[in-house]
Amino acid sequence: MYERTRAFRVLAHAEFEAYIEDRCLDILHQAHLEWKSTGAIRPCLLSLMAHHEAIAKPSSPTGGTVPKLLGSIPDELSDLSDSSKKYPTLASKIEIAKKHYSTYVREKNHGIKERNLLILLLPLGVLKQEIDSAWLLATEGWATERGKVAHTSASAKMQVQIDPKAEFNTVLQVLAGFKKMDSILNQK
User: Fold this and answer.
1) N or C of the chain: less Cβ packing under 10 Å?
2) What pLDDT sits at residue 4?
3) Which burial class, exposed, middle or buried, applies to 180 when counting CB atoms under 10 A from its CB (0-12, 13-18, 19+)?
4) Whole-angstrom Cα distance, residue 110 to residue 58?
5) Rounded Cα–Cα distance for residues 136 and 128 (Å)
């Protein structure tokens, strides 16, 4: 029974992680499609652009540093083209930011701890006040315990037995937080 409870913890964590990654990418993809087809820009695209770091900081002709926004404006109209890497268009900047975010989500995110969730949610425009701190704390603790189970051999040392009922209740609490976050993401 306790081995099944440990397996449940590991598998539930994997499902939560896959869900939030897929959901975030879906929100971004839908917003990008909407922008390309209608020109309407949803909050998650604006937020993604705000969170994406500038590639370069060109210096001004006077020798000072040009603000990032002005640094992407060419000196002459002839310098501007859709394929220019020096002066990229809004479409290409959005593509780059979307690609970097998607790559992070698919290849570098490894969990649902607080930091993982913030890296996934904040660039999509989720605000601090929209994140339930109790849910985040419960998820952090539960994910930490999951790590102990997943990365420790059952035969390596004596393990504390996990109470199946308490584990199920914790998963329900984490699930409730993900449901709330899903409705918040729908608004982005």
Assistant:
1) N
2) 83
3) middle
4) 35
5) 11
Average confidence (pLDDT) over 122-133: 92
Rounded to the nearest 10°, the torsion over CA 11, 17, 22, 28 is: 170
What DSSP assignment string belongs to 41-56? Answer: --HHHHHHHHHSPPS-
Q: Which residue has the higher pLDDT, 128 or 155?
A: 128
DSSP 8-state secondary structure symbol assigned to residue 187? T
Q: What is the pLDDT of residues 66-125, one digit of tens each?
A: 444 444 455 555 565 555 566 678 888 899 899 999 999 999 998 999 889 999 999 999
Rg, the chain, Cα only: 22
Contact 72, 117 (CB under 8 A): no
Q: Find, among 184, 151, 145, the residue nearest to 167 by Cα.
A: 145
Q: 0.85 cut: is pTM over it?
A: no
DSSP for 108-162, please give it: I----SHHHHHHHHGGGT--GGGS-HHHHHHHHHHHHHHHHHHTS-TTTS--PPP
